[in-house]
Amino acid sequence: MAQALLEQIINGTMMGSIYMLVALGMVLIYGVMHVLNFAHGVLFMVGGYVCHFFFTQVLDSYLLAILGSMAVLSVIGLALERGVFRRLRDNLRMQVIASLGLILVIQNGVIAIWGPNALQMRITTTDIRVPIGELSFTLQHFLIIGTVGVTVTAIWLFLTRTRIGTALRATSQNAEAAQVVGIDANRMYVASFLIGCALAALGGALLGPLFLIFPTMGDLPLLKGLAAIIIGGMGSIPGAIIGGLGIGIVEAVSTLYIPTDFRDTVVFAALIAVLLLRPQGLFGVRVRGEA
Amino acid sequence: MTTMKQITTRATAVAALAALAAMPAFGVSGAMAQETVTLGIVTAQTGPLAAPGRFQMNGFDLAVQAINEAGGFEVDGETYMLDLQVYDTRCNAAEGASAMQRLATVDQVPVVLGELCSPVAAAEAPIAADFGVPLVLTVPTAPNLTEQGNEWLFRVNPNNFQLNEALAAFVAENGWSPLSFIAWNNDAGRGGVNGMRELLPDDVEFGYVGYFNVGEVDFSSHIANIRNEGSEAIMLLMDEEPGALAIRQIRDAGLDAQLVGTLAMGSSRFLDRLNAEYLDGMAQYNAFPPNAPIPRIEEFSALYEAAYGEESHGFAAQSYDGIFVVIAAMQAAGTVSDSAAIRDALAEISWDGVIGPIMFNENNQAEPPVYITQWCDDGTRRILFPDDLAADCGFG
Q: Is the ipTM of this complex over 0.95?
């Protein structure tokens, strides 16, 4: 049983790292712009497709393909912020509807370009097996965990140690007060969308080689990412990190004790419990006037 | 959304040969066809099961091509060309029901063939009965489909019970115990597990049984549980795409248990998704081993490969036979439009198809032969069962 537990902790940490990336991207956009971008899952999926395209058709280098995918998704993020969300800035309801509409547009656009069938992306260098006792994992598992660890640390340092990061946090806390002290809110909105989309692309590009790349590959990470930021606390970056990782590990370990097809039930039962006991989430701050 | 597709003629030399071969069977003497009979087709052409849906559609297309290249088919002294009205049901029950109703009421086809997915076929079958249109299934395997007393529903392909019966005997003979399962969380997966429970002798112990939903790609939880159970063999009740992913993850996780699969895992396309090392020794049931040294299979495989440039597939062979069975029933009934008469003729039909002899039992279920094939270390397959059709590596 100890061996199975170790196996599931490693598997859960890997999937939790992916949920963490999705949650972090969503929470950055939500924190700064107060937009809950439901299209984040399809952007994650597009990241996988673009990485596959660069890797198989252009660059033949996984690292460059990941960077290429992040760059392309940043441009897409810029276009979405400028073309859709900026125009709907004062209408939260319309922003949510627009993000739901984007799911259909982007998902069907991908099917039109790449077709409905799943794509494989075999990376021979990360496909090798790493034995741990009687267990075995692909190097890609540890690449995901390591890359996400480094990325999250870099984002944390960026937000806490740089002027733009500080400006982002200031806009997140109070946009009007930030503007009073000379912070350009529009630039901050663009920056948060750029970073959020790049993180989505990174997630899709990292998960693609391990599983498959297909039009609905972002649905589950979106759902779990959303659960992570609600459990962690809306707008809280530590909450998104702990929430994402926690969901990954809890759902993986739970399958050793309950039927595997019930693992989502465990996650959403935890979500309901947190909402009942601590509505602002584990790391969220209760705001006066809110329930 | 439904899509309609008019079948277009693909003129190939091989199709012409097939057409010539088909001529005596259909009694065409070179007269020009005067009218066209349109059959309804329901299948998944998009969505997560678009890939197997394509094999099914290729079989239908190939049959239509062969019949039309031969100058059509003759019924009661009249010669007819064949056409298909195709609806894409995307493996969605609501879309399948809607398509079936449209084929019966708007298109008014005499017979409908197809369906890829058992739950969709279950939604279409009552509509076929309500409107009195025979529905001939060529791929769905859920046994209960033909156990509902629906006299308008026929099935050409073997069902899960028939497929499992052969496999259960093979598993018991090899003493693979405990046997674990990873299965689709639907009728086909759960039905398959229940079927094996009924068929396997008591000395074969059941290990872990896990279900996954369509679209899930992470099998790590199942693998940890299977390892924890110390299973000797793992049965994968799923399609080609998740099957390839599951096998890759099982082997990458260092689990060397015997793998047992379905007919979706016995094709060269499946090998392309993995490699010979991952598949070596895996056994699977099969309704159509495409390389078997059996003349009817050799002929069809050559025809299919020439038309589509790939190894033939059981879904295509079953669907090809489905069209010919329907035409034979029309000829026996002496009508191309009286659905009730065609249904009665189908119930009595005896057709020597590509997949073997096709005759419907009291539940309108055909009983073609079932095979067990096994992957060899060089990426080819061999036939292990039935004994009289056993063949070595390269002929499975």
A: no
